[in-house]
Amino acid sequence: MVQNFSKVHDVLETYRTAIYEKDVEKLLSLYASEIHIYDCWGSWESKGIPLWKATVSDWFNGLREGSVLLEVAFNDVVIEETSTLAFVHCAVTFTGIQEESGMQLQQMTNRFTYGLKKAKGTWVIVHEHSSLPIDFETGKGIFDLK
């Protein structure tokens, strides 16, 4: 799927809808083939589309099996961009909704940083880093937006 993302906000909106729709190809269309991701779930990092595709496919299959819709909300978005490079940092809240009942199952917020480049008139993500602050007393991640 080839899409043209003329604005950085187009990338964020497509990210949101691709996750809600559990559309692997739509989500992958946001990333450069040489994507480098540091993730706070599963593996420490992913390099390249094939590894990222496997991770996303497993994630979306798990959501399908549980009949879960995942709503994505971007908070405190800061975008710095030049004509060819962009840097985005924000808090991303993921809310799990039971498809049949519409009941909220769970919610968590991660910190995200995206590095994008513009090639042939379209923005693509070349680096993504998600993280959680750590509670020093328990050693566990803090999942609530504060």
UniProtKB/TrEMBL annotation:
Residues 8-134 form the SnoaL-like domain. InterPro entries: NTF2-like_dom_sf, SnoaL-like. SUPFAM superfamilies: NTF2-like. This is Ketosteroid isomerase-like protein. It comes from Planomicrobium stackebrandtii.
